[in-house]
Amino acid sequence: MAARSRAPKGVILPEGGDWIKMHGGKRAGLDVRIHVLTEDGGLIYIHYPGWMQPNEKALAALSGGPETSFDDLYARATPRMETGSSAYSWVNDAVFICRGLVIAGPTIEAEVFRLT
């Protein structure tokens, strides 16, 4: 069962990386590693490996075309979060899944769910 939790608001720091490895032109392996600095000074490390199947709509959006919806793009990952912040320590023991879409930028936006 997935539960919606309000994620801490913050900014993604420039340290980190986002790697995509194509497999036969039909699917892409995702390896994203980021640091989020929350509005109240907490620091959260997030690593999410996953899979994406880029279709024509997604490729067009990544090239500056109209954004996609979650139904337009199969992009799924299993984020793992770690923090030393007591305010967000619950993320250390939680299991997450997420799905993505392409928005203007082009940018990938993820909707993250905590499994309960």
Highlighted features:
disordered N terminus, 6% helix, 116 residues, 8 strands
3D structure, described in words:
With 116 residues, this protein is mainly beta. The protein has one helix spanning 56-62, and strands at residues 2-3, 10-23, 27-38, 43-53, 74-77, 80-83, 95-103, 107-115. It is 6% helix and 56% strand. Strands 1, 2, 3, 4, 5, 6, 7 and 8 form an eight-stranded antiparallel β-sheet that branches. Strand 7 and strand 8 form a beta hairpin. The chain is elongated and about 45 Å long. The model is unreliable at 1-5 (pLDDT under 50).
User: What proportion of the residues is helical, as a percent range?
Assistant: under 10%
Report the radius of gyration as a whole number of Å: 15 Å
N to C succession of SSEs: EEEEHEEEE
What general outline do the C-alpha atoms trace?
elongated
Average pLDDT works out at 87
Instruction: Calculate the terminal CA-CA distance, rounded to whole Å.
Output: 6 Å
Nutshell version of this structure?
By secondary structure, the chain is mainly beta. It has one helix and eight strands, in the order ββββαββββ.
Helix and strand arrangement:
Elements: E1 2-3, E2 10-23, E3 27-38, E4 43-53, H1 56-62, E5 74-77, E6 80-83, E7 95-103, E8 107-115
Antiparallel strand pairs: 1-8, 2-3, 3-4, 4-5, 4-6, 5-7, 7-8
